[in-house]
Amino acid sequence: MMRDVAMLMHETAGLMRRRFEQEARPSGLTLLQWRALSLLEKSGPLRQVAVGEALEASAMAISDLAERLQAAGYVSREPDPRDNRAKTLSLTADGARKVTEMHDAATGIFTEIFDGVTEAEADALRSALTRIKTNLGGPDEPPARGSRR
């Protein structure tokens, strides 16, 4: 019984990732770039290494991502004031506008994904997934209801 639930979770996560990738593609973004811009919008300027850790991506992938986002005008890359070998990424005004577009697109996707799911079902799912996440060693606090995570 639990194996089929785990497989369903895995397949659903993959379908959700694919759906977000489809939405990001016309804007010229990858899903990882989309996630990085959202992270910078939420957290403010961050060192590249912190972005990599938060997104669970390699230093090489984040370096490439930062170069592409900078070339697109969505982020600035500056030497970290405490360590000039490190780079800090900051969202630009164009990047902030792109994040607003992405949030609008995400709202539409979430509406599509959760069509027909009742509040009670969403609450039960949130509770079960939080328990599973905790069992796997993740933080035990669920995202706030209505959050953009």
UniProtKB/TrEMBL annotation:
GO molecular function, one term: DNA-binding transcription factor activity
Gene3D superfamilies (alphabetical): Winged helix-like DNA-binding domain superfamily/Winged helix DNA-binding domain
GO biological process terms held by the UniProt record: response to stress
InterPro entries per record: HTH_MarR-typ, MarR/SlyA-like, WH-like_DNA-bd_sf, WH_DNA-bd_sf
Cross-referenced SMART domains: HTH_MARR
HTH marR-type domain: residues covered: 1-134
PANTHER family: HTH-TYPE TRANSCRIPTIONAL REPRESSOR YETL, TRANSCRIPTIONAL REGULATOR, MARR FAMILY
Protein name: MarR family transcriptional regulator
Organism per entry: Primorskyibacter flagellatus
Upper lineage: Bacteria, Pseudomonadati, Pseudomonadota, Alphaproteobacteria, Rhodobacterales
